[in-house]
């Protein structure tokens, strides 16, 4: 069962403005990355459902998070069907993210009052997601569907929209400022936040400092 309410999850994402997106088959690496992000100020973290036995790593990570990072809101990403979502909800996922909109997943998550953030690439898809009860929608891949200008243009006719941009998001002042100024609720960031060479070198302090830097830029951009 989720340890955080739907409102707590959405508030954490909105207040911090960033949700790291990460997957690794080694549970120890996942634990260290989660802890590094936590120490850097991150409070919502998306572990992606990729690779064999991803659910086993997630279970380990959830137990670790509740013990060592009690304020961290851990969710699951890359979910494309309801059975998979149900599995992770049993493992304590506090939110569910998918690459595209699946009405069955939306209904399942609504039943449990767990936020579901589906990937959308058009105004129509965003509208459909909102009709299905998705408070926060993900534009994905954000760089390909129009970048920050797409968010700005969406917010004009749909000002109530809460949007997470994932894809083409980088931990730089120019990039993050553009997304925030456009009206993005939060950003999802993966490979740019976790360079493979840094992970291989177990340079966890680099990740902590990069998270602090990105969160600081987001705060400044919001004014």
Give the terminus-to-terminus CA distance: 36 Å
What is the average of the pLDDT values?
97
Sheet with most strands: 8 strands, parallel
Rough outline: globular
Strand order of the largest sheet: 3-2-1-8-7-6-5-4
Poorly predicted runs are: none
Quaternary structure annotation: single chain
SSE string, helix = H, strand = E? HEHEHEHEHEHEHEHEHH
Tally of DSSP helical segments: 10
Number of strands: 8
Q: Percent of residues in helical segments?
A: 40-55%
Please state roughly what percent of the residues sit in beta strands, choosing from under 5%, 5-15%, 15-25%, 25-35%, 35-45% or over 45%. Answer: 15-25%
The radius of gyration over CA amounts to 16 Å
Structural class: alpha/beta
Family: Belongs to the KHG/KDPG aldolase family.
Keywords: Carbohydrate metabolism, Lyase
InterPro entries: Aldlse_KDPG_KHG, Aldolase_TIM
Pfam families: Aldolase (PF01081)
């Amino acid at each position: 069962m989720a340890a955080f309410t739907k409102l707590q999850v959405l508030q954490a994402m909105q207040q911090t403005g960033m949700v790291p997106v990460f997957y690794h088959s080694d549970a120890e690496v996942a634990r260290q990355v989660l802890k590094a992000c936590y120490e850097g100020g991150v409070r919502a973290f998306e572990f992606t459902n990729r690779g064999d036995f991803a659910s086993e790593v997630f279970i380990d990570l959830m137990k670790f998070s509740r013990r060592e990072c009690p304020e961290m809101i851990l969710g699951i990403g890359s979910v494309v069907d309801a059975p998979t979502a149900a599995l992770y909800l049993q493992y304590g996922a506090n939110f569910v993210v998918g690459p595209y909109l699946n009405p069955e997943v939306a209904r399942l998550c609504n039943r449990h009052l767990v936020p579901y953030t589906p990937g959308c690439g058009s105004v129509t898809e965003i509208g459909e997601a909102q009709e299905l009860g998705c408070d926060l929608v993900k534009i994905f891949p954000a760089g390909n569907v129009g970048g920050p200008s797409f968010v700005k243009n969406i917010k004009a006719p749909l000002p109530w929209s809460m949007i997470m941009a994932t894809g083409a998001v980088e931990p730089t002042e120019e990039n993050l400022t553009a997304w925030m100024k456009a009206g993005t609720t939060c950003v999802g960031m993966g490979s740019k936040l976790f360079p493979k060479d840094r992970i291989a070198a177990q340079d966890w302090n680099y990740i902590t400092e990069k998270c602090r830097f990105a969160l600081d830029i987001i705060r400044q951009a919001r004014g």
